[in-house]
Design a protein that fits this description.
3 copies of one chain form a homotrimer. Chain A is built from 10 helices and 12 strands. With 289 residues, the first copy, chain A, is of the alpha/beta class. A 7-stranded mixed sheet of chain A has the order 7-6-5-8-9-11-10, sandwiched between helices. In chain A, helix 2 packs across helix 3. Chains in contact: A-B, A-C, B-C.
């Protein structure tokens, strides 16, 4: 008899995410075990319960999803999960706290539809947030020349140091964008800008967006008005605006959802995958092919 | 592919109700997402998770149930839920905290089997509780002449003011029933009495029940002995007693359960219904037809 | 229509056990209602929700599982559950907090494959723990001559007093094993030793295990190295070692899992069974037949 698909949802928030739960159900999960307020010390017991209940040949039908609004906590829950494995006795795991992995992967996938990323000069606004730092990492790994921008030059530099640690070939530079002059200078000559800021914060006003004639693609990941890039509506999806291809948060959302579901499907195909940002982006590229 | 039915159970109690969960499963819910200790500030995130995961044409397969033993909190959770909707992007919702809506609807439906409510003089005992106030509202809206009784005349008056606010045509009066004389006077001439008191409190002793020759129907909603209306057994279901048709809490329970299940079915037929007391009573009437 | 199988999982831990949940799903449970941090005062409401939602003829499709790492709390949750029943209006319940019931039953079942328990002299190490005391009880009830050993003679005596209370025919004696001399004396002449100690504590070193030529079967229930009985690997399953049949924790685990699943099947066959240690051991024996 085929075992039913069981997903263990580990969420650091008090209420486990309904969003993640519905997507799991729609991806074919039969039984969802929802756990909220999950702390590091609880992970091993929960993951061992997933590992030690089914025969090794059935373990691909049990998997772990790590969510919650705090991405840093999510990363530590992921580590605690993989630290609980015993060699081949393990289950697959998908990490998408705050949707940061699927969102950043979708944004870079969208950019790649219109640009050869390896030859692109890119500016990432609000680069130090959970989505921004993943976008920087993915663009850098794709060979782009990346400016990682933050209102704090120091925070931007810390991020760049972290992302490029042990990967000297990445072309990533920190830039401070605490005023319009710095912003105007930062955007000069780039073909791609991705804004990964908090809800309701305008990062790039219209006049600065349109002052750069080399700009080809602008992607804004903030769905709550005011949008992060002036006049880029949340619904925009490869929408031309002043000669620039633009995407809004909802326009990227369809790709994000496809990647999320493909990742949920993937973790039930074998018991040995760990889907974090790089693997999720790779899945996103495969969906485009 | 038809989407499976997902119900988001928002319960203000620490442990989400097993009662509500079993009824949901028996009404065809495929996946139940149970949330306990739900607070007002958590509602929007949970409801948005229900709204933003499926295509608009599939949204009728996701719904919200609001439960918990505290009816006032349940009302505020309902408001927070509907406040989270964005125009047509919404899901249907059923509010039945403490079973107050289905219980009061079932009681009035039962009364309507034997009386023309528009021509009925009714007495509601313990009218200020969550079930009592809904019974008063439904009887009043059906055109009955209602005495809303409480041991505190002031609380009774507050209730009447609230229920009749903006509905001047309702015939509802407050009565104080803090002693037997007041009670004897209150029951005089009524054809219907409904007792909606707390478990184990006798609201109407036998001698007062039988002193009114005009009484036709007596309904007691307290299942825990001593019953709320003298000698009206909890199992009574249209049972004649001293020339009066009587219902006990369990006797009304079958109708309550049918209404509860019909309401759960209804919220999966479209994504735009909000089932609160008036809509639930209307459903109950349709089941009688 | 056949009702789906609903299992109410009452767990005293903050996170309800994933282990118990997966086994429940694999035993045919359709809907699992998981409750963590369950306290005594919450049990009645939860159990009444299971009792009062389906017709009596359907009640066998709803059942309660009691888990959690604290076996003493589990016992009190079991009592609160059965105290909530009203005569024939009840549901079946399985108690296996910390896996203590299925583990001890599996150990004694394994021993019974190789020995006539009624004619066996047995030594139980760490007898005062939740698994140990159940092993003592089962061996005693099977007619064995049991030495219940603890590093504290007083605690061992308290256990024996409790187990033999009202059952004067049981042959159970307390022994203190706080040093090697006491241990050597305790093991002398026994055919069976079962070690039920905490993870990572060696209760019986190799030299003491091999000093008793009458020993036939040695069972160790600790899976975390160092094992509880010297050189008895956790994977051992009727493995001969120095002329003794040995079982390790994982070797017993297969039988434990079969018993666990059979118990979960059993509680959905009728609505009137309470599966605690004695009933679970009986089920284990039936599986051997």
């Amino acid at each position: 008899m085929t075992k039913s698909r069981i997903l263990v949802q580990l969420d650091s928030d008090a209420q486990p995410s309904v969003f993640d739960a519905v997507v799991a159900v729609d991806s074919g999960v039969d039984h969802l075990l929802q756990h909220g307020s999950v702390t590091l010390d609880q992970v091993q017991g929960l993951v061992h319960g997933a590992m030690f209940t089914r025969a090794p040949s059935d373990l691909h039908n049990t998997a772990v999803f790590i969510g919650g609004s705090d991405v840093v906590v999510g990363e530590s829950l992921l580590k605690a999960t993989t630290d609980s494995f015993f060699g081949p006795i393990r289950v697959s795991v998908l990490m998408d706290a705050s949707g940061a992995n699927t969102t950043s992967a979708a944004a870079v996938v969208a950019a790649g539809r219109h640009l050869d990323l390896a030859k692109t000069d890119a500016l990432v606004l609000a680069a130090t947030g959970p989505v921004g730092q993943r976008v920087v990492r993915l663009l850098g790994a794709a060979g782009a020349n990346v400016k990682a921008a933050s209102r704090s030059g120091q925070r931007a530099q810390h991020l760049v140091d972290r992302v490029t640690s042990g990967m000297a070939n990445l072309k990533i530079a920190a830039v401070e964008t605490s005023n319009d002059d710095q912003l105007r200078k930062a955007i000069k000559g780039v073909q791609l800008v991705i804004a990964a800021g908090a809800a309701g914060v305008e990062l790039l006003p219209v006049e600065l967006r349109t002052c750069n004639s080399s700009l080809r693609v602008a992607i804004d990941l903030n769905a709550v008005p005011p949008v992060g890039i002036g006049n880029v509506d949340a619904m925009n999806k490869a929408t031309e605006l002043d000669g620039v291809v633009t995407y809004g948060a909802i326009g990227v959302g369809g790709t994000k959802m496809k990647i999320h579901k493909a990742a949920l499907t993937r973790i039930f195909e074998s018991n040995d995958v760990v889907l974090d940002i790089d693997e999720i982006y790779k899945l996103g590229l495969e969906l485009e092919a």
